[in-house]
Write a structure and sequence with these properties.
The complex is a heterodimer of chains A (823) and B (222). With 823 residues, chain A is an alpha+beta fold. Helix content of chain A is 49%, strand content 17%. In chain A, α2 runs antiparallel to α11 and α16 runs antiparallel to α22. Chain B is built from seven helices and ten strands. The chains are: A alpha+beta (823), B alpha/beta (222). The complex binds adenosine-5'-triphosphate and magnesium ion. Chain B: Belongs to the ABC transporter superfamily. Macrolide exporter (TC 3.A.1.122) family.
Chain lengths: 823, 222
């Protein structure tokens, strides 16, 4: 029987070619979308799950409030980890990560020495690999980070510096101090290793004096701490809660001396409504559930985007199924005779349903094969788009294959059940007369399905347009500084005292308008600490503690970056500015100063010195529009208020002959700093990088929207083709009676266009709601533009019209005599 | 007694009024009979055959087939009954276009869950009997009308029915082809198959041993 079913299915596929192609293509595209999105989501979900005993590992996060500022951070003070292990038996071990600014590595033993800036070198505690079991290819995870002068590298780094020589035991020089580090381990290839902490090399944290220096501090938040709990504590949510409820007590004891030292008695600090808390975040949550938790060590995505993609995938599959249902039911006229005969010959309804399900199975089978072929072709492009390295093999290990099978079964059921039941419901006598399908009920359902398809397509179009205009907006919004034509040179700290003459020479180059050095740079992070503004007689009621992020800058910085001084002045050589500070408007407003100029803030984290406000800057964004503007300050370089060890030189350039200018700057750099690679970027590009995640989501959105629209059009194409064919005779008669081609096109198209308009009306509120929700994530956002709705409507109408016209014209211009003769 | 109709009424509602398609039809058919139903176009011949074939409902009356009361049976049971005992032959042949001659003849056996080997033998016999072995791999569209009807009859016979219902089996055929089909029916009848045919042709009706005349859904005396 089954063979018979398959045979008939096969012959039907061949016989109704257009229909088959539309069905199979639609289903295949649906499957491709689901499979791609499933691969992507699986990859995202797998982050940090592959470590040994991952379920026992947690990141220690910090949440704090100081005056008007509150924050969540994936950072802790340096002593937190040890203190936790000390105080709580439930916490077995703790390990810390520190992200050094300097990432320069050199191999000097070779005949031709190699020097590079690596993108990511992390400093960790010796037990790091015992907590987070990154796989090693060479070396012992328990000992390879014991000695301070050791370094463990990825195979890519090994290849880059040592070629095919065994890297174990070789020496690399780190940083500007050229500290010698011995390679004690090599990782497995980690490029595909889904971990939220990514790196090129690990070295012991003992190499970094600032960490050692701040070992007393409970306010210096620059280290990520991971802890491993006992099996007992990690499996019971209640014991986990109990454990965390004891953290505040510990902090009160431990953090008090540190707060005292920065002039902020802890009790007093808490009484003012501030807080300073530690809490645990499960390792597996870090990658996707860390919105609002600051961390530059971990790769943090938004789980929302996974939901969005998942929904889109589901939509596309449903669209493809709807196509299938539509195309099958409109075919029922053609098929009804066969069904009638079969019933007369003794087929039970059950058997007919089986037959139709077998047909769906065949279509799905071909669609699946086609989908896999398409995936093979598309995957490299998709990887480029997502920045991932996904492989088709991933389908065959793990649960993904089950998911895909599940989706295929779902497709078969969804696409098959309605037609199967619908087609087999006819009375055999009526079926034999071919009258079966012309019921109003079935055309109602069919129309409903068309509306549904266009509803989804239009909603996706609107959403895509809104996402794009938001991105456009964020990238073009006035950020409060001149981001164009600013060239930023990294690693300027390697210049040491020669930075001054380097700057002088840069200014002398044709095409350089300004040159400035600074300890920080927009998008690259900033130094942050607590300050205490000093009340004065004229303004006694002010906030007396504030956290400020800041840069140390020279007097050309404001000019170079195009910042605007609102009141007062910028730094100036004519004054002695080592004890001056420039605030942004937000900082001044938060302190509560109406006349900030001449007022003072004290720096308890330094030498308790006072800085006098000399100017106020118009607010500008330091990172991206995702983050709101925070209190910010500029200190003069010569203040040496703190030591960041990073330095940037920024150039405002004229923008002419940029290529040549960069070469000149590079040559100049080489003459000053032979051993440090020349690294530069344009500020506007750095800013764009901050939107990479949004950009990526937008491109994914677009791709799948296009697919959804395509599938919807396939369905419409099939429907209209069928309708036109069905009405061939009528059209023939009308033409013989003198109807024009345009009137016939209109006759065929008008009905479908009505449906598209209805879909448009339905999708407007849904898209509005969805986008309004999405936009809430942006600190600066657009109003949902009306034109997006108009454009989406116009686009959908145009697409529908095009599809319809193609078929309608084909039928309309056919020779009427011929169409009358065919039955 | 093969089947018995008692006061069968079938009507449709049109504009609130009942239009009778079958009006008080009573009929007894014994095994081995060959009955011809005659009457003008629209008189209800097809309707009556469909009712006898259990393909169509009726509103009033009783219908017994081999001592089962059809009017009280559930759809599933009814289809089992006609699958077992009744074969249909149509004026328009109603072969399945996507299937070959062989497969068309085989189809009823599939629905009776007969094993593959037995199916092969039965179909081969049938092809042999109707001299269409050479055509077994052709599709209906590749056959003449007469040949298609032969396939239709072969298909109706394959499941060894007690009763064949033939609705104008020669209507689409020329007179020579028609005669061949009628002779075949006669032969089958002599082998013991009960046949009820609807026909317009007096000469075809003569092949049967009883004629029933219909007019506007009612039986009339000849
Ligand atoms: N579903 C229906 N609704 C309304 N009237 C119907 C329906 N089916 C059949 N009829 C009517 O019933 C009458 C009998 O139809 P039937 O097909 O049985 O006639 P017939 O004797 O087979 O005619 P012919 O010799 O032309 O085949 C006709 O007048 C037809 O119009
Ligand atoms: Mg008739």
């Amino acid at each position: 029987m089954l063979r018979n079913y398959i045979k008939i299915a096969w012959r039907n596929i061949l016989r109704y070619k257009t229909n088959s192609v539309l069905n199979i293509l639609g289903l295949a595209i649906g499957l491709v979308s689901v499979m791609l999105i499933a691969l992507y989501i699986q990859n995202e979900l797998s982050y940090d799950t592959q470590f040994d005993q991952a379920e026992r590992i947690y990141r220690v996060n910090m949440k704090g409030k100081m005056g008007d500022n509150s924050f969540y951070a994936g950072y802790t003070p340096p002593p937190a980890g040890d203190a936790l292990v000390d105080q709580f038996p439930e916490i077995e071990s703790a390990t810390r990560i520190y992200q050094p600014d300097n990432t320069k590595l050199a191999y000097e033993d070779a005949a031709n020495p190699k020097v590079f800036n690596e993108s990511e070198i992390l400093a960790v505690d010796p037990n790091f690999l015992e907590v987070l079991s990154y796989p090693l290819q060479k070396g012992d995870p328990t000992t390879c980070l014991q000695e301070p002068n050791s370094i463990v590298i990825t195979p890519q780094i090994a290849q880059k510096y040592f070629g095919d020589i065994n890297p174990l035991g070789k020496t690399l020089a780190y940083g500007d101090g050229k500290k010698s580090l011995q390679v004690t381990g090599v990782f497995e290839d980690l490029t595909q290793y889904p971990a939220s902490v990514k790196f090129d090399a690990l070295m012991p944290v003992a190499n970094f004096n600032d960490v050692t220096y701040f070992n007393w501090s409970w306010v210096w938040l620059n280290m990520a701490t991971y802890v491993k709990l006992t099996p007992q504590a990690s499996t019971h949510p209640a014991s986990l809660t109990r454990l965390q409820s004891r953290f505040p007590e510990m902090l009160k004891v431990q953090a008090a001396p540190a707060f005292e030292r920065i002039g902020q008695p802890f009790e007093e600090f808490l009484e003012k409504g501030n807080y300073w808390k530690l809490y645990l975040q499960p390792l597996s949550d870090i990658h996707l559930y860390s919105q609002g938790i600051t961390s530059s060590i971990t790769e943090q995505h938004d789980v929302k985007s996974l939901y969005i993609l998942g929904i889109i995938a589901l939509f596309i599959v449903i669209l493809a199924c709807v196509n299938f249902m539509n195309l099958s039911t409109v075919q029922s006229v053609k098929r009804s005779k066969e069904i009638g005969i079969r019933k007369v010959l003794g087929s039970q309804r059950k058997q007919l349903i089986k037959q139709f399900m077998t047909e769906v199975l065949c279509y799905t089978f071909f669609a699946t094969i086609l989908a896999f072929i398409m995936i093979l072709l598309i995957l490299p492009v998709f990887n480029g788009l997502t920045g991932k390295d996904l492989h088709i093999q991933a389908f065959f290990d793990g649960n993904l294959i089950l998911l895909i099978v599940g989706i295929i079964v779902f497709t078969i059921l969804l696409a098959g059940i309605y037609p199967a039941f619908f087609l087999t419901s006819f009375n055999p006598i009526r079926a034999l007369k071919g009258k079966a399908a012309k019921t109003t009920k079935s055309s109602f359902i069919r129309n409903g399905l068309v509306v549904f398809q266009f509803f989804i397509a239009i909603t996706l179009i609107i959403c895509t347009l809104v996402v794009f205009s938001q991105l456009q907006y964020t990238q073009q919004k006035d950020l409060g500084f001149g981001k164009d034509r600013v060239l930023v040179i990294n690693n300027a700290e390697s210049l040491g005292s020669s930075a001054l003459s380097f700057k002088k020479e840069l200014i002398a180059l044709a095409g350089v308008d300004e040159a400035s050095s600074s300890s920080g740079m927009l998008t690259r992070g900033e130094f942050g600490d607590f300050y205490t503004p000093k009340p004065t007689a004229d303004e006694p009621n002010i906030t007396t503690d504030i956290s400020l992020s800041s840069y140390l800058v020279d007097d050309a910085f404001i000019e170079t970056l195009g910042l605007e001084v609102k009141v007062g002045r910028g730094f100036d050589k004519r004054f002695k500015d080592s004890l001056s500070v420039i605030l942004n408007e937000t900082a001044a407003a938060q302190i509560g100063w109406k006349n900030p100029i001449g007022k003072q803030i004290r720096y308890p984290g330094g030498n308790m010195e006072y800085y006098t406000v000399v100017g106020v800057l118009k607010d500008f964004n330091l990172e991206s529009l995702h983050t709101p503007i925070q209190p910010f300050a500029l200190f003069a370089e010569e203040s040496q208020s703190y030591d960041t060890r990073t330095s940037f030189i920024s150039l405002k350039i004229s923008g002419e002959h940029t290529e040549r200018l960069i070469n000149q700057v590079q040559d100049l750099w080489k003459s000053y700093s032979e051993n440090t690679p020349f690294e530069y970027s344009f500020l506007d590009e750095d800013l764009a990088y901050a939107y990479q995640e949004d950009q990526r989501l937008a491109s994914l959105f677009t791709v799948f929207t296009i697919l959804a629209i395509f599938v919807a059009c396939l369905g419409l194409f099939g429907l209209i083709a069928f309708t036109a064919q069905q009405r061939t005779k009528e059209i023939g008669v009308r033409k013989v009676l003198g109807a024009s081609i345009s009137s016939i096109v209109k006759l065929l198209a008008i009905n479908f266009l009505k449906l598209v308009v209805l879909a448009l009306i339905l999708s407007v509120p849904v898209a509005w709601f969805a986008m309004d929700n999405w936009l809430q994530d942006f600190a600066y956002r657009i109003d949902i533009p009306i034109w997006a709705f108009l454009a989406a409507g116009a686009l959908a109408l145009a697409i529908a019209l095009l599809t319809v016209s193609f078929q309608a014209i084909k039928v309309a211009i056919a020779n009427p005599v011929k169409s009358l003769r065919t039955d | 007694m093969l089947l018995q109709l008692n006061h069968i009424y079938k009507w449709v509602k049109q504009g609130g009024k009942r239009v009778f398609l079958l009006n008080d039809i009573s009929l007894q058919v014994k095994e081995g009979e060959f009955i011809s139903i005659m009457g003008p176009s629209g008189s209800g011949k097809s309707t009556l055959l469909n009712v006898i074939g259990m393909l169509d409902e009726f509103q009033e009356g009783e219908y017994d087939f081999l001592d089962e009361s059809v009017h009280t049976l559930k759809e599933k049971h009814r289809s089992k009954l006609y699958k077992e005992y009744i074969g249909f032959v149509f004026q328009a042949y109603h072969l399945i276009d996507e299937l070959t001659v062989y497969e068309n003849i085989e189809t009823p056996l599939l629905y009776k869950n007969i094993k593959s080997a037995e199916r092969k033998a039965l179909v081969a016999d049938m092809l042999d009997r109707f001299n269409i072995v050479g055509k077994k791999d052709l599709f209906p569209a590749q056959l003449s009308g007469g040949q298609q009807q032969l396939v239709g009859i072969a298909r109706a016979l394959i499941a060894k029915p007690k009763l064949i219902l033939a609705d104008e089996p020669t209507g689409n055929l020329n007179s020579k082809q028609g005669e061949e089909i009628m002779r075949l029916f006669k032969e089958l009848n002599q082998e013991g198959v009960t046949i009820i045919q609807a026909t317009h042709s007096e000469s075809n009706a003569e092949y049967g041993n009883r004629i029933i005349n219909l007019l506007d859904g009612s039986k009339v005396k000849a």
